[in-house]
Amino acid sequence: MKTHTRTLTSELPIEKPDAIDAKDLSTKTNTLTPELLHKINAYWRAANYLSAGQIYLYDNPLLKEPLKLSHVKPLVVGHWGTTPGQNFIYVHLNRVIKKYDLDMFYIAGPGHGGPAIVGNVYLEGAWTDVYPNVTQDEAGMKKLFTQFSFPGGISSHVAPTTPGSIHEGGELGYSVSHAFGAAFDNPGLIVACVVGDGEAETGPLATAWQSNKFLDPITDGAVLPILHLNGYKISNPTVLSRIEHEELEQFFRGCGWEPFFVEGDNPETMHQLMAATLETAIERIHEIQDNARENNDTTRPRWPMIVLRSPKGWTGPKVIDGLQIEGTFRAHQVPILVDADHPAHVKDLESWMKSYKAEELFDKNGRLMPELAELAPKGDRRMGANPHANGGILLRDLRMPDFHVHAVNVPSPGAVNAQDTLVLGNFLRDVTKLNQDQRNFRVFGPDETVSNLLGAVFEVTNRQWEARKVNNDEFLAPEGRVLDSMLSEHQCEGWLEGYLLTGRHGLFNSYEAFIRIVDSMFSQHAKWLKVTLELPWRRKIASLNYLLASHVWQQDHNGFTHQDPGFLDHVINKKADIVRVYLPPDANCLLSVFDHCLRSRHYVNVVVAGKHALPQWLTMDQAVAHCTEGIGIWQWASNDQDSEPDVVMACCGDTPTLEILAAVSILREHLPALKIRVINVVDLMKLQPHTEHPHGLNERDYDSLFTKDKHIIFGFHGYPWLVHRLTYSRANRNLHVRGYKEEGTITTAFDMRVQNDLDRFHLVQDVVDRLPHLGSKGAYLKQTMQDKLIEHKHYIDKHGEDLPEIRNWKWSASE
Fold it and tell me: Are 181 and 499 in contact (CB under 8 A)?
């Protein structure tokens, strides 16, 4: 057996460089006594047997009678390739949990590794604790097998239905991010994160290796990544499995890790090597933490990680129909086709499953042998029962400051300007300060906290940063409540999700256009929330809160690339029980909305707010009432109190609100007899029928606001068709939405609105076009508006800024 730097190998022939350091783990290759080695291997066989049974068997779970095709599921689906390796890892983690009394849980990154984790959670008893009908006997084993990838059962990957899981293994790339999110502020926790070598090729995962620059060994827990190199994806080799040993080691050292290699295919040798390596890794983690905590050593450590190289489909079928299976891509999914077209394969399946010798592992009633059951940890130390993996159990309410303290004084509508997110930053500073000792609130963002004007939080905390610092750095420290020093939306989202899923609170602030980078991550989290609502044993967690600033209407210098409000369209596709979308028109409304969002549970809250100075419309008392209702008539801007309106002017979002009110002021000046009703929408989902969303208005209330037949000119923050989607079934079909229509460039703020027909001049023209009874007065006003549009264009071309009457416009109560 060859040994190499921090490397343990077995008989698997892999090209490696000559040993470059005598310091290795060869002295620990007899970590396991013969008796313990025998038991661990038997436990691993039991997990492999249960895994294969889940993929294939419908009946005859202990193979007490010869296997028949009728015992096999009509549709065999699942993934075997990653499963035995994960079973191997799990049993060894169980051993070190018991030896060192570890608080540890398991994140399964490889896609569709469900059979492994479900089987192990069942063996340790946690599955039966949660699902008492799946008993630890032959009848329960049959149910365990039948439910897997079966109608009404469980999915083939690690899902919310799996006790001990915070990570959905269907979409790849986020395991390490979730692991670090879980470890933040959990100083006693170790997160064992298994990374598939296919998963390692995704962009988010490749970047996630840098997360070790943000983990504080004093105040945070630890992440133990275990890269499982089994060589193949569905039908291709994996990159990291095909590069030289030296290159792979250098890669991880370059990322700041201390890699330990366990490589081979001989079970007996591999058990010894894995046991020794895991002990070394755990002891190294404890050394790092003890040194940091006892000596206040803030030097960034080189955390250990493990590279496990084992065959794809290890211990599975070797050759079927003349084709090699184990150790090839053919082991990735179902290694043996067993159906009516392949009846001879029934014997192959039976032979494979009998190779695990289930009669040595389970008694005649299907119970795991007591001496094997003793290998699993007890109680909450079982990875399937760890409270951190059901974070709602640990969730504590935030200590919330009084947001009224930060109210903008609004003596009359539009009398003052303010920067909404700047005001919110002061509130978030107080939230951060009040919860510092609880260590359960963090702000996440890809280097945009200051840019989005939330910099007040740095009055009470720092950015967490473990890498080198230089003199001109700002707010960098080994410990802080802000994680925004990594320019990766994927990592910020993944960290926050892991943080929330383990029972804490937080928010993600981002430029609106680039939140689209995590569209799919949002989808996965929303699906997780939806499924967990249906599981009584899953406790609700704190909401995922997005603050989208630097939005589509405020990109004077960034231009077209930064203009995309489409995240809202994506969000509302998810279940109504989960998603909430808020577009507060001013700072006081933003404070009220965010106070609500931070207190909420089990939602995805999307809040869109601007950072540029804009008019402020409502006092704090008015804002609280308005946000509580979510939608309402602004009586102070309307003049239809004594009669039916001629037109309804509606708005949703800070910039559309400004332009709608500016258009109303023009209409009221030039057409004083025109009756106008102004409606503002804060809660976007109010537009949807109450039968579709719990916040939606019923038909009576909607018609009361919008009328059944009057023209509605609606200024909307995002793409116009989103409002049409939400209101398509309403009685009033006279809805005309103006919003972003994919026009933009580097230009002035007002010209952005002009290019998308959301400006006051176009809105006035729209009203005139809808109301032919205005006659010549309307025609003259429309011409005036057209003249204004031409004047605007000439002015910005010459002066590079908007007309003074635009920049200095104020709403007047006398209008």
Answer: yes
